[in-house]
Design brief:
By secondary structure, the protein is of the alpha+beta class. It has two domains: 2-31 and 135-203, no CATH class; 34-128, RNA Polymerase Alpha Subunit, Chain A, domain 2 (Beta Complex), CATH 2.170.120. The protein is 22% helix and 37% strand. The protein is flat. It starts with a strand and ends with a helix. 26% of the residues are buried.
């Protein structure tokens, strides 16, 4: 295993040919328990959006994960009156529980009011996608090479900025692991892209949980599921 990229929101690993493990972890993320808004009770809504549409938007706002009893709720109240035309309600108006700020909810005209209580509970991605803490996906690592004639095509760096860059007026390979396309997509003579046996394994976080916690949770879920299979077989 080799780590090739890391940021607070994304981690990229290179794995040996282990698509079975990668796919099992990808599926396990749907069983990770997280906190998300599951119902919204409206007391006032003067906006142009129906209650159901607003509730859907609020439900998809990522919340910082918190361990609470599965039959318990956390309440996120909001009361807002627009002072000017175009005043916007954004995610952080729901309070400190929100994981990502500046997500737009709705705009109001002067004098319009919204008042509601959002209730969040624990659930899994199997129940609804709002509970997904992030994404796990993978693809085969491509071996990328550039012949002399291809290095003159500087537009490659503009078309595929994650893979190619320009240095000394020539195109060079920036991130080979970011190449998830083939030669037909490039359509430039001298660019060779060949799949290898290695796997590019990517984990992305929506801010609900740190990357390490997402991976650790998936591994624990996989271990638990394997133990249950083992018990059934024995």
């Amino acid at each position: 295993m080799e780590k090739v990229f890391k940021s607070p929101e994304k981690e990229v690993l290179l794995l040996d040919n282990s698509t079975t493990l990668a796919n099992a972890l990808r599926r396990a993320i749907y069983e990770v328990k997280t906190l998300a808004v599951t119902e919204v009770e409206f007391f006032k809504n003067d906006s142009v959006l129906y209650d159901e549409i607003l509730a859907h938007r609020i439900g998809l706002i990522p919340l910082k994960n918190e361990k609470i009893k599965e039959d318990s709720f956390i309440e996120l109240p909001l009361k807002f009156e627009a002072k000017n035309d175009g005043d916007e309600i954004v995610s952080q108006d729901l309070g400190k529980q929100v994981a990502i700020d500046n997500l737009p909810i709705v705009r109001l005209n002067k004098g319009q009011k919204i008042e509601f209580i959002a209730r969040a509970k624990i659930g899994t991605g199997k129940e609804h996608s709002r509970h997904l803490p992030g994404l796990i996906y993978y693809y085969h690592l491509n071996n990328v090479s550039l012949k002399k004639e291809a290095k003159k095509h500087l537009e490659l760096a503009e078309r595929f900025p994650r893979v190619f860059e320009v240095k000394n007026e020539e195109v060079e390979i920036k991130n080979e692991w970011a190449c998830n396309f083939d030669e037909e997509d490039v359509d430039v003579k001298g660019v060779e892209i060949k799949p290898t046996e290695k796997i590019v394994f990517i984990v992305e976080s929506f801010g609900m949980m740190p990357l390490e916690e997402i991976i650790e949770s998936c591994v624990k879920i996989l271990e638990k599921n394997l133990e249950e299979v083992k018990k059934e077989l024995s």
